[in-house]
Amino acid sequence: MSEGAIDLSQIRGDWKFHIDYLQNAVDRTLERQLRCRGAADGDAAIDAAVDDQARRWADLRAGADGNGTIPTADGQLTAFIAACRDAKPLCDALQDRDAGAAAEEFTEACRQLRALCDDLEMMIGQRPDNL
Question: What angle do CA 111, 29, 26 make, to 5 degrees?
């Protein structure tokens, strides 16, 4: 059942609430991903991808404004999103190797992070001018 198109202008009033929610969700998901990365069994490419994502997110958090809101207009968030999406084949390959429950938890954290990126991407274009 479809409710029709989403009116993105409706998010503007609650933009700060939504970005705070997303930032917290990314924080928690990255923590889970880092905690479970041992399931990658020392795969250098996966380790490099996870490290890159964590570094980019830390840079975004370090550049947050006085209200704790990450920057969305300088390209850093777009680069973080790209880093998450670029890791998809690596994480999917790990899952395809049937590396066990720990690998499944790790790849699920990777999928969750990519899903959050869709919302982060939407927030880039919806940021109100007064924030």
Answer: 100
Which tokens is 117 given? 């990126």
Give one DSSP letter per residue of 63-96, joined into a string: T--TTSPPP-SSSHHHHHHHHHHHTHHHHHHHHH
Sign of the torsion angle spanned by Cα atoms 94, 97, 103, 106 = positive
Q: Which residues of the chain, if any, have pLDDT below 50?
A: 1
Gap between the Cα atoms of 46 and 78, Å rounded: 20
Asked whether the beta carbons of 30 and 37 are under 8 A apart, the reply is no
Contact 53, 87 (CB under 8 A): yes
- In whole angstroms, how far apart are CA 59 and each of 62, 75, 99, 106? 5, 12, 32, 23
Q: What is the dihedral of CA 69, 70, 72, 73, to 10 degrees?
A: 100
74-104 pLDDT, tens digit each: 999 999 999 999 999 988 888 777 667 778 8
Residue 87: which residues within 8 A CB-CB, separation 6 or more? 46, 49, 50, 53, 110
User: DSSP letter at 12?
Assistant: G
